Amino acid sequence: MKNVTDSFVSLGHWPFAGSFGFNTDILATNPINLSVVIGVLIFFGKGVLSDLLDNRKQRILNTIRNSEELRRGAIERLERARARLRKVEMEADQFRVNGYSEIEREKWNLINSTYKTLEQLENYKNETIQFEEQRAINQVRQRVFQQALQGALGTLNSCLNNELHLRTISANIGMLGAMKEITD
């Protein structure tokens, strides 16, 4: 915080006109800017991010448990369908002479509908997991951005008082005037 205040205070001590210039050394300025941004994000977003990730982890685990229960129910239905299939096959042996083709058609219809049901349940489970993951990622991104922005604004507001603000504005006006004189 002291470095931020010092940088604003030092704006008032810059000499005008002759020695004003831009720091074009990109290797010297970018690491400083990146380290400040990363530090602010880590400092303000660490707790919120871990809480959000823990909450999302629990929701995803609950969704997986629910999907597993649905899968178990589908397996039970599949077992019942297989038992029914065995029953139909026994009846088919009894009625083979009278209607073998009709029973065979029933058997395949039953198998196909069971497999379609299983595929639909598996697709639903996968879509639910993907949707929840994407939603969790979006929520985490929004929360981190909001926290970082609030932290940065809070830091700036706590560091700037009226006198420092007026001195910064005056220094910037002076620099703009000097730049105008140089261009004229």
From TrEMBL:
It comes from the Eukaryota. This is ATP synthase subunit b, chloroplastic. GO terms for cellular component: chloroplast thylakoid membrane; proton-transporting ATP synthase complex. The gene is atpF. It is found in: Membrane; Plastid, Chloroplast thylakoid membrane. GO terms for molecular function: proton-transporting ATP synthase activity, rotational mechanism. InterPro entries: ATP_synth_b/b'su_bac/chlpt. It is a single-pass membrane protein. Keywords: ATP synthesis, CF(0), Chloroplast, Coiled coil, Hydrogen ion transport, Ion transport, Membrane, Plastid, Thylakoid, Transmembrane, Transmembrane helix, Transport. Its main location: membrane. The chain crosses the membrane at residues 32-49. F-type ATPases have 2 components, F(1) - the catalytic core - and F(0) - the membrane proton channel. F(1) has five subunits: alpha(3), beta(3), gamma(1), delta(1), epsilon(1). F(0) has four main subunits: a(1), b(1), b'(1) and c(10-14). The alpha and beta chains form an alternating ring which encloses part of the gamma chain. F(1) is attached to F(0) by a central stalk formed by the gamma and epsilon chains, while a peripheral stalk is formed by the delta, b and b' chains. Residues 64-98 form a coiled coil. In plastids the F-type ATPase is also known as CF(1)CF(0). Component of the F(0) channel, it forms part of the peripheral stalk, linking F(1) to F(0). Belongs to the ATPase B chain family.
